[in-house]
Write a structure and sequence with these properties.
Blueprint lengths: L1 H15 L11 H10 L5 H13 L5 H6 L2 H7 L6 H19 L3 H5 L3 H9 L6 H11 L9 H9 L9 H11 L4 H17 L17 H5 L9
Helix pairs in contact: 1-12, 2-3, 2-9, 5-6, 8-9, 10-12
Length: 227
């Protein structure tokens, strides 16, 4: 399994090139806010919301808690579901204040299992968002599973026995070396491949994984492309 997953990674990297993620300025708290705001949102809309928070000097835990919730929601409106996300940001900032004296670095210094537990115990942070934070804010080797991951690898015939987030994550974590740079690049390449090629209706003839994809090989060429 390890060599198979690494072969897929190399094919994607050769085809698309390095992706240079995380999108954004890379400051840990900004990455965390971005990870929460990007739930059900395109990154370009998240960037608009982050710019509005930055312009309002509201990109810190204390500033988020100082803002009335409706004002915070208005600032992050471009990211969608803005009222719910305002509550999530305030819940995260509250957890940070109560447990870590408002210092993101203290949270992110936890070992990976403790960090994931602290994040998952916080309102509004599910497994995918938690692993975004683990990988991109804490720079710890947590593999991110999203809808693109499930779609691509299911088509490749690689799937866990149980269709759950934890089972999918464990499939990759057990097979791959615990390497932050590898996980970062692999996730970015999966997203790129899922958006451009392995779409809901896939572009199989131009896919760099076609020769190892049972789904792609079984498709009629005339049915493979939707433009």
């Amino acid at each position: 399994m390890k060599e198979h997953l690494l072969d897929i990674y190399r094919r994607l990297l050769d085809f698309y090139g390095p992706q240079h993620w995380w999108p954004g300025d890379g400051a840990p708290f900004v990455v965390i806010v971005g990870a929460i705001l990007t739930q059900s949102a395109a990154w370009r809309n998240v960037e608009q919301a982050l710019d509005r928070l930055r312009a309002a000097a509201a990109l810190s835990p204390d500033a988020i808690l100082a803002l009335p919730e409706d004002e915070l929601a208005s600032l992050i409106r471009p990211s969608g579901y803005f009222r719910m996300k305002a509550r999530k940001l305030r819940a995260f900032a509250t957890m940070l204040r109560e447990r870590f004296d408002g210092d993101p670095a203290r949270l992110l210094a936890l070992d990976i299992d403790e960090l994931r537990t602290a994040l998952l115990d916080t309102y509004g942070i599910g497994p995918e968002t938690a692993d975004d934070i683990v990988l991109y804010a804490a720079h710890k080797p947590g593999f991110i599973v999203d809808a693109y991951t499930r779609r691509i690898f299911d088509r490749l015939g690689i799937r866990p026995a149980v269709d759950s987030y934890d089972a999918w994550r464990r499939l990759f974590m057990d097979a791959l070396p615990a390497d932050v740079a590898l996980f970062n690049e692999y996730h970015a390449l999966i997203v790129r491949h899922g958006k451009l090629t392995c779409r809901k209706t896939p572009l199989c003839p131009v896919c760099p994984l076609l020769s190892i994809c049972p789904t792609g090989l079984s498709r009629e060429p005339s049915a493979s492309i939707t433009l």
